[in-house]
Specification:
alpha/beta; Rossmann fold; 2 domains; six-stranded parallel beta sheet; about 20% strand; globular
Length: about 350
C-alpha cells in the first residue's frame, strides 16, 4: 500500500513500446492518488515522448547509450565521467518514498541502487540480477500483456480502480505542423494508411518486397501509403515506395500522425504501440514474439501470424524466418478492407 501524498520514482528506461506500456500505470496511480508526486527516469532518446506529460512531476533523462560509446574513447572520459556524476547527483538529490523498478534489468537495477529511497520495489522474476537492488518484490504474471502486468503492480500499491485512458501528449505547435504536412502530402484527400516496416530484431522483419507489393496495392486502391521510421532507416524505406516520412517526425508528432490515418500496418516494434496510444486501428505482423504479451492492446486491432510450432521463439536470429515469410500481402489487404 501507499499513501496519497508520497513521492515516487518510476524507472523504465526503454524501449519505446515499454515506455508506452507504462503510461497506463501512471494514469491509474494518479487517478487513485491525485496528490502523488511521480518522477520518471527514462532514456534520453525516448524522453521527449513524455516531456509534456502533465501527470508527471519530473522527467529524468538518462544518456547511458551515449555514455557507453563515449567511454570507449579515452579523450572523452573526463567529460563523460563528469556527466555521469552529475546524473547520479541529480538522482540522489531527492529522497523518495518509493523507487519502483518495473523494468527489472541490470541497467534499471543499478539506477534503483543509486537512488535514495525508503522502499525499493521491483517485479518478481527480474532478470540479469536486477532483483539485488530492491528490497521488495511484487508477484506478477509474465504470460499476460505488459500493460496488465503493470496494472498488477498498481493493484499491489493500493489502487482500487484500474480504469484509465490514453493521455494526449502532443503540443498545439506540433499538431499544426503535422496537419500542415498532411495537407501538403494529401491534396486529393485520399484515405491514408501508415506503414511501419522496421524493427531492431531481424526476426521481426517482414520481407521488404512484401512491403513494396503492399504499397503498390494500396496506391491502386486509391489509398495513400505513408511510410514511417527513424532517420537512419530512410534509405531502406525508400526501396518500398510511397511517401517516406522516416526521420521527419518526433515521437509525439508520430502519435498525432497515426491518429489522423485510417489504419497502421506495422511489425512488432515501438511505433506499433504508439499507434495504439493514438487510437489508430492497427494491423500487426507477428513472428518470433508473443502478441498476448506485447501485441496491440485493446479492441479493434488485428494480429497476423503464422501458426507454427516454433512460434513464439523469442529469438533474434533465425536461418529461415519462416514465421514472418508465411504472412502474405493478400492477408494484410483482406484485414485492411475490413477496417476502412
Amino acid at each position: 500500500m501507499i499513501r496519497g501524498d508520497e513521492h515516487i520514482l518510476i524507472i523504465k528506461l526503454s524501449s519505446i513500446g515499454d515506455v508506452v506500456h507504462t503510461i497506463p500505470f501512471v494514469e491509474v496511480l494518479k487517478n487513485n492518488f491525485p496528490e502523488l508526486r511521480i518522477d520518471w527516469c527514462v532514456d534520453k532518446e525516448i524522453s521527449h515522448l513524455i516531456e509534456t506529460y502533465k501527470r508527471l512531476n519530473r522527467v529524468i533523462a538518462c544518456e547511458r547509450g551515449r555514455w557507453k560509446k563515449s567511454l570507449l574513447k579515452p579523450f572523452m572520459w573526463h567529460e563523460t565521467v563528469k556527466e555521469i556524476s552529475f546524473f547520479v547527483k541529480e538522482l540522489r538529490n531527492t529522497s523518495y518514498d518509493i523507487v519502483l523498478d518495473i523494468q527489472g534489468l541490470l541497467k534499471s537495477g543499478i539506477i534503483a541502487g543509486l537512488c535514495r529511497g525508503r522502499r525499493k520495489i521491483g517485479c518478481d522474476g527480474a532478470r540479469e540480477y536486477g532483483w539485488i537492488f530492491v528490497n521488495e518484490t511484487v508477484p506478477v504474471n509474465y504470460e499476460q500483456h505488459a500493460i496488465d502486468r503493470y496494472l498488477q503492480v498498481a493493484r499491489y500499491l493500493g489502487c482500487a480502480e484500474l480504469n484509465w485512458r490514453w493521455p494526449f501528449l502532443i503540443t498545439e505547435a506540433e499538431k499544426r505542423r503535422v496537419d500542415k504536412l498532411i495537407s501538403e502530402l494529401n491534396k486529393k484527400r485520399l484515405p491514408m494508411v501508415a506503414i511501419n516496416p522496421y524493427s531492431r530484431w531481424k526476426t521481426k522483419l517482414w520481407p521488404i518486397e512484401r512491403f513494396s507489393q503492399l504499397s503498390e496495392k494500396l496506391k491502386k486502391m486509391g489509398i495513400l501509403p505513408l511510410l514511417t521510421g527513424a532517420k537512419h532507416q530512410r534509405s531502406l524505406i525508400d526501396r518500398i515506395g510511397g511517401v517516406n516520412l522516416a526521420g521527419m517526425l518526433n515521437l509525439r508528432e508520430l502519435t498525432y500522425l497515426y491518429s489522423r490515418v485510417n489504419a497502421v500496418i506495422s511489425v512488432d516494434t515501438g511505433p506499433m504501440h504508439i499507434a495504439v496510444m493514438a487510437g489508430a486501428k492497427v494491423i500487426a505482423l507477428f513472428g518470433p514474439t508473443d502478441p498476448n504479451r506485447t501485441g496491440p492492446y485493446g479492441d479493434g486491432h488485428k494480429v497476423l501470424r503464422a501458426d507454427l510450432p516454433c512460434s513464439p521463439c523469442f529469438k533474434r536470429e533465425c536461418k529461415t524466418i519462416k514465421c514472418m515469410k508465411s504472412i502474405s500481402v493478400d492477408e494484410v489487404i483482406y484485414q485492411l478492407e475490413g477496417m476502412i
